[in-house]
Amino acid sequence: MAGRLLKVSSVATALVATSGVYLYTKQLDPNDLSLVRFGRAAAATAVISYDYLTAFRNVEPGTDEYSALKSKVHLRSAERLRALCCANRGTFIKVGQHLGALDYLLPGEYTSTLRVLHSRAPQSSMDEIQQVIREDLGKEVPQVHWDLSTKRILTMEFAEGGQVNDRDYMRRHGINVNKISENLGKIYSEMIFVHGFVHCDPHPGNVLVRVCPHSGKTHIVLLDHGLYQELQPGFRLDYCRLWQALITSDMLGVERCSRRLGAGDLFPLLACMLTARSWNSVNTGITSTPVTHSEDVEIRTNVSQYLPQISELLNRVPRQMLLLLKTNDLLRGIEAALQTRAASSSFLNMSRCCVRALARHRRSKASSRTRRLRISVGEVLGLWRLGLYEVYLQVKGHPLARWLWALLGCLG
User: Fold this and answer.
1) Cα distance between residue 82 and residue 103, in whole Å
2) Which one from 51, 201, 296, 329 is the annotated catalytic residue?
């Protein structure tokens, strides 16, 4: 049992270390040299591993004492990870913020401890900020203007609002939680599938919601535009086709598109990681199979058991996929906090964007007006079918419809 718990902590620690290696770019402080930063990561890993290996030696598994001790070990390990992220700063903070959003994957002690990095991350000193400003702008104190932004500085207005995972804030301000989840999904589907230019750091501290005081409309505000990924057209289209296959339960298409993206014989694992669903649910249909507690438990268990395969898969797929996986995890964490996971509307919006993106690509390759017209007609019909299906789901889920079905069942 201690070994399995050790694997759970290893998932978090490995993600911190390996993601830091991938994203690490430049340091301004000698204390932040890569040797020092990853030396800290190695030391934290060793201490956490030793704690898990020795803490449970004299405790019987399955007892109340064991459960209480497990929670304590999780908590102090999470605090060590948080201290590591704060000490190394930079991309380690980003990874800590990512882990803090994985409520569906990591123990609560980890997510609650690391979640503070969403809104209370260590701040750079004014001297450090002014150093970058002097290097790039030649000024001591910048004014708030777009012309003062550079490759390393993005000067933006201060935005009021509540974090996107704060249900209490939304309740107090009369904000529809389901609509926020749906619109956030639309925003990211447009970015990923249609435009191929993606904000890849949507942890709750970077996504605010607010009611506009002038129009009364609800706004979603994206902050921190320092981590964008421009998707290569070929990758984006294969990713579109893969998601279409996943949504329609086209398993041959899932395998074909996954292999095109480099997954090889690990294509079932890629499908499970993208959807955060079990392989059985992927086969049955992610749009028709509700998420259950037993499935969540199965996923948490498998993450620790399949860590070598996960590492192998991450080494195989294009680097663009790594940031999309991170983005998916963060969005899924928000959905879990809002209790809107696996909503049918999110899959419908993804399908619409995939249909539009693939139709636009086919039109760009068409050699005749007739061919382009046929593609456009097919696109309209595809979107129309999705619209009809959405109406069907809305009617089916309406309380009156459920009452009528129950009445017909009684009469039958």
Assistant:
1) 16
2) 201
